[in-house]
Amino acid sequence: MIRKYLNARVKSFGYAFHGIRTLIETQPHARIHLISTLIVVIGGFFLKLQKTEWLAILICIGMVWMAEAMNTAIEFLGDEVSLEQRERIGKAKDVAAAGVLIVSMISAVVACMILANHCR
After folding, report:
1. Domain holding 52: CATH number?
2. CA 14 to CA 27: how far, in whole Å?
3. Which pTM value belongs to this model?
4. pLDDT value for 87
5. Cα 42 from Cα 37, distance rounded (Å)
6. Residue-range definition of the domain harbouring residue 46
């Protein structure tokens, strides 16, 4: 019983990692997020960020990746329902993309504020 449960949990992690791979392989913006993530993390180590600064940076990174993943899921589902131009599906895709844009812009401001403070 426990072994079956643990095997199912391990399998679910595999699905999640496959989702990350799909996200990076199929979405150009995810690759931009990946490069941005690496630059900010490397910069953070180089500048020796404090724990609270890392916390803010990591929360922002996680929010951007989560938003991009949800946006991609909505796009995949919308395209599965219909490849034709459908107004409500288009609006759903636009709103999901807006979520990514909003969190990305806020995250960029947070990163700039933190990193600029160390470059003085």
Report:
1. 1.10.287.3610
2. 20
3. 0.89
4. 95
5. 8
6. 2-118
